[in-house]
Amino acid sequence: MSTTSTPGPVRVEGREKVTGAARYAAEHTPPGAAYAWPVPATIARGRVVAVDAGRAMDEPGALAVLTHENAPRLKEADDATLLVLQNDRVPHRGWYVALAVARSLEAARAMAAAIEVTYAAEDHDAVLATDHPGLYTPDEANGGFPGSRERGDFDAAYARAAVRVDATYTMAGLHNHPMEPHATTARWEGDRLHAHDSSQGATTVQKTLAALFGMDSERITVVSEHVGGGFGSKGTPRPQVVLAAMAARHTGVPVKLALPRAQLAAVVGHRPPVVQRLRLGADADGTISALAHEVTTQTSTVRQFVEQAATPSRTMYVSPHSRTTHQVVELDVPSPSWMRAPGEASGMYALECAMDELACATGVDPVELRVRNDTATEPDSGKPFSSRHLVECLREGARRFGWHERDPRPRSRTEGRHLIGTGVASSCYPVYVAPSSAQVRVDGDGRFSVRVNATDIGTGARTVLAQIAAEALAVPMDRVAVEIGSSSLPAAPLAGGSSGTASWGWAVHKACRALGDLIGEHGGTPPPGGLTATADTSDDIESEPPHAKSSFGAQFAEVRVDTDTGEVRVRRLLGVFAAGRILNARTGRSQLIGGMVMGVGMALTEGSTLDSRFGDFAERDLAAYHVPACADIGDIEAHWIDEQDPHLNPMGSKGIGEIGIVGTAAAIANAVHHATGVRVRELPLHPEKLL
Ligand code: MOS
């Protein structure tokens, strides 16, 4: 029942993008614009004693050097990483201690190099250890999930289980590294602030700037018209928008600030390193009786961020006795933050590798083991799932992949000096939706325009919103224009949590239906002056839904391991997902495959090394931080189950932005074990770990 549907409409802004006509935040140059270049701290902890800007101000074209002594004062921020240049404290290496502003980019950069900062350094601690005395269990992990949960009696059930798996998995930190670095062009017109910012949600940036600068949000306009990726790192406002706004106010001219790639690792968030201990107790047939998932991670001293990696174990499998915990330590390191499928990507790596170890320990086929532990109700909440087609994904994936031909014995397939192996893992991602508003207008000629502050971070938001509107209005898509990407449009939530299309689309759908009614009241023809309808979904979204809601999927990988070099190549990757109705097969497939490619990076090449002596990450560019390129990807396929779920939203969709990465790394790691017989419980699977 997997869909091989027509491809779906092409991106409405595709031509603009490929011809270079689409402009990104740093490509706007207001008359008289100046350029800024930030200065990162070179110590891991301490104080700024003095900033000597004398030599910097001698640069031709120099306009200003902002420091904590002269920068505009900021008021409030929920996120303390935005309180830049407000005091002399250095909480981690890379924290901004000054900003150079000049008539040209080159001059700003030269100024930044000439600024002399004197520090009083203090001892720092940048080492995550599972016995660190500073570890504590927070009340909540990210997303408001309980930090710790217990059901039944794990210890007793685990002790009496016929088969036990106890394994600890370690992941390096990971960086989002969107193709377009974080950038802002800011200008003040009197007491009004206008910013082009590369963000995943301009309404969020506008509200945050209003709080920081103590202004009414009506006086702030934030535009995020085209965004070259974010993967979570642009889901919250970042220092560049605050610095650019401060510099523009201080100098009186518009200021452009594009963060240099080499500085990103310290200031725009990352997935933190995570250590996960999994214990599975099962019957001889593989039915899980006891499950413990214990997460140890780190955050900074600036902001508490706790990757909610144990949460998938509260959703995935039958587990009458369960313990899921997070503990965190505040180190003198850069602040972690959201990165694609936070919690699920990391947590499912560990859980799904442990499931593979349980399959080996019981002799149950890995697909069958997961089917056997499927559950109709969410184990932790006890709620029934609104829809759950994990088993169908596993079965359909197994059929398409040719799983039944597999010899389960490790090291059973060789091709010359290569070992060949296959692996499977499940995927999941929660269904999120947030209130949104939207406006739809029809003019006298029967042309429709949709206005909503959605953001297209490369997903195809404009296109799918035009589809949703056209369907709700029962008109051809070419009669619908969509305007998104500005806080001057009806307020909307960010492109994050795989919730964008559901959230914005719901409001667009509702406004279109209201407009349809208005047109009906006019006898089916809009009057010459047109008609407008607005909608807000605040009252439509249940605060305590009776169902647990999640997308599910199954990932299959075939790897080839070079026995001379330890190099792993992914020859085949196949995912089958159940994510409600897929609204646009073309852009949807692209998102799922994009997630899976990011999962290949997580498994094999990506990893940020925290140098404990310096308290900062060693990889500063895309030459050192290896994201997969086309040549790293062999056959890759994404399919889906046509899932009908009446409990979601008027479109019947779940999110697809993040589930593609979930489970990929485990499927690859499990395939590497199958190929080699060696269980490496540490990502990334660099060649030296396999030799
Ligand atoms: Mo995603 S990490 O919610 O942008």
UniProtKB/TrEMBL annotation:
- EC no. given is 1.17.1.4
Keywords from the UniProt entry:
Molybdenum, Oxidoreductase
**GO molecular function annotations of the record:** xanthine dehydrogenase activity
Q: Which InterPro entries match?
A: Ald_Oxase/Xan_DH_a/b, Ald_Oxase/Xan_DH_a/b_sf, Ald_Oxase/xanthine_DH-like, AldOxase/xan_DH_MoCoBD1, AldOxase/xan_DH_MoCoBD2, AldOxase/xan_DH_Mopterin-bd_sf
Highest taxon in the source lineage = Bacteria
Return the protein name.
Xanthine dehydrogenase YagR molybdenum-binding subunit
All residue ranges annotated as the Aldehyde oxidase/xanthine dehydrogenase a/b hammerhead domain in the record: 19-123
A single Pfam family it belongs to is MoCoBD_1
Q: What class of enzyme is it?
A: oxidoreductase
According to the UniProt entry, the coiled-coil residues are: none
Region span, Disordered: 521-549
Which species is listed as the source? Streptomyces syringium
